[in-house]
Fold these 3 entries.
Entry 1:
Amino acid sequence: MSAAIQPYTLLDDDDCEVRILRARETLGERLVILGHHYQRDEVFRHANFTGDSLKLSRQAAASKADYIVFCGVHFMAEVADILSRPEQISILPDLSAGCSMADMANLQNVERAWQELSEILDPEVSITPVTYINSAADLKGFCGEHGGIVCTSTNARHVLEWSFKQKEKVLFFPDQHLGRNTGHTMGIPLDEMVVWDYDKPLGGLTAEEIQNAKIILWKGFCSVHQMFQPEQIDNFKQKYPETLIISHPESPFEVCQKSDYIGSTEYIINTIANAEANTRWLVATELNLVNRLHEQYKHEGKNVHFMSPNVCMCSTMFRIDPQHMAWVLENLVDGHVVNQVSVPADVADNARLALNRMLDVSP
Ligand code: 13P
Ligand code: SF4
């Protein structure tokens, strides 16, 4: 019988720290901990490898450990399960750590969209389905089955270039902002990127709009990045005109248009790390990461600021806490697997197809 989480919820962070370190030592190389950049520091510091979604997928695929404990959100642990060997076990310390953007598309409404699009054109001939990695495994499976592909914020442009070599149009889900921002950098006019509203018949579009579109963007968004607004940049720059703006491509188009740099979490970190001393940065991405950058680089005179006056934290990433970490790791020490994330084989096979296509075209 595995131990229940309840007693762990009463432990303070320092107790958990000791337990986590002890369990890590006992498990040795049988365990690898992967940590996304948005994780809180008390968890993040235990990661063997940290990264953005692409880097962590590669780490999961390369890992030889028996247990992959993913400090991130559910779709990341699914990807680790799909890309690792069958006998490896992928664990998400709190199974309720989902992604609200990923939940905005599901197999049912994507299949319905595919069906409705077939009233206007033959999607199998004309459309490459592209899913952002922030999506459930069955949507990656859908893409695998229909000649499509997965992308991350790092490789979205390479993936779209590949997609347009296959078919003339792309159906991009779930994040409209990543799709639009990437399409725009490729020179696709805004009016050729239409938004598919999954609550409306034919996505709320006319047949003509669909025929003229290069990219059909799903009406999804990240509630964290949606909070950033162009006025926040204008207000900040009034005070500090020398500020450099750097944004994650999940941010709205108008914010990215006013940014000096756009890229994934890993790109944001590297850009600020390699910047000249005494520079000032306004950053549009999740708060835990921005706070970490602020602390890390203040001694170089780099001033790193968060773009929004409001707190924009990824509340689901935050669910991975030291208490859940101590719980899953001590259970592993005792030979119990708790919170395994396991993708059914038929879904995993098609999803792996779409993920491997992505890994092949990624720089
Ligand atoms: P990246 O770390 O891949 O840039 O993605 C950010 C994100 O929202 C993860 O869910
Ligand atoms: Fe999902 Fe946004 Fe959180 Fe990333 S930051 S996991 S996209 S809700």
Entry 2:
Amino acid sequence: MIEQDAELVFNRRIATSTFLMGLRSTGIAAEARPGQFVMLRVGQGMDPLLRRPFSICGTREHDLVLILYRVVGRGTGIMSRLGRGERLSVLGPLGRGFDMPGDRARSVLVAGGMGIAPLIFLARSAKGKALTLLAGFGTSGEIPPLGELGLGGIDLHISTDDGSAGKKGLVTALLRDLLLELESDRLEIFACGPLPMLKEVAAMSLKEDIPCQVSLEARMACGLGACQGCATRGASDRAGTYVHVCVDGPVFAAGALDWEAS
Ligand code: FES
């Protein structure tokens, strides 16, 4: 784990309210694995006070760490206005990432919104594996240029809430259709997105007995297992067993979590 003031190399809008940032950190770029995250301090002084977690979207040229983010509030608004040459306090890489695709014939990556960020990193790191990416967005303008992000040629299926691109509806409907077509014992699933989506993906994978890893999005204050802010219920026979998303995850086997309590 590295803490440093990293130089911002680029920070550009690539879709509606969506930015791609490149930070120069040879150390973090060398250590980062798909599914891990960094904590960024996006303002100076006390405002905003806390670091925020961002999935690592990839690495480039051995020293760049890529962050894909959507402007949703004050902190990310400040981030979007930062320019080349500025410095950001960054801590990472943190957390437990994805176990890379194993010997199943096809890996199905299921992304909801900005949940696509760690799955882009996973897909780029799993070159040579048969991959299908199912990606859901609110509307067509939110879809990042996936070719530019290194996913040109991937087997891609899009859904949007308003039907402006791909199939109208939720990305889980795309997964349901795919599971009707393909033999489940040849598949493994990797998912990241909002909790309701992950619950549904987990339920489908557990029902079909398909290996499934999910990356949880959680509020995190410390990212280091110290504040208890990201605790969630783990699946266990013992009542009251909690896991910390920041250090035990953010990636978990679908069967390792108590989805009823989530
Ligand atoms: Fe503090 Fe996980 S964010 S314990």
Entry 3:
Amino acid sequence: MAIIRIYHLYPAHLNLYGDRGNMLALCRRAEWHGIDIEVVPVEPGGRINFSCCDLLFMGGGQDSDQKLVAKDLKNHRTEMRQAVEEGMAVFAVCGSYQLLGYYYTTGRGEKIGGLEIAEFYTEAGPKRLIGNAVINCSLWNPPKTLVGFENHAGKTYLGPNLQPLGEVLVGYGNNGADKKEGAVYKNVIGTYLHGSLLPKNPWLTDNLLEKALSYRNQVFQPAQLDDSIEQQAHSSVIRLASSKRHKRRSSRV
Ligand code: GLN
């Protein structure tokens, strides 16, 4: 039986807007596909054995929590970067996405150093970027939509060689200006989308499971699942995000 070991980093500190639901979606979907899952929660000060980690998940966090976990993550920087280069799958949301880049400067002007895993930086802007978002995600050909909820002060700017996760159809994405959302580097996905994200975008959940398996030379053999409820949730966010009222409210933020 295929097996995936997921390291859940700092669950007590990084869990905004239902991010923990991503773990539930990964575990439940893996079970439906006949994949064994082992979850290893790690809090600051804990040991992270990257050689055993197939998929690393980190949720979003407020500036204060980001600062706290960034300090701990620094102790793991070399090992984490090496595992990423070898193909470890990483899924990082909002505050932890920001920590994968060069730095995040908070609204108070504090500079939190990042892991420098991918070429980007983040600086807080004067207003928060809040609302439901829809992106066209090019992990698939043809692209599929991803829907989620964003709430961030940070504006992220990608280096010229870094691929975004998708193109913004509704919402703000990385910085509210260049229509890019998230970033993809090797098997790493960073995104501003909370929600939680994975239950409403089951194709992304499967993509992460597939990445984690292929990293260990295991083949993803998806079961035929009935995704009608997930699809309904997905479609209802698209309807909500696309409604004129929602767009008006978001643009007032
Ligand atoms: N503190 C960060 C910001 O405001 C991240 C917030 C979050 O994870 N939602 O940009």
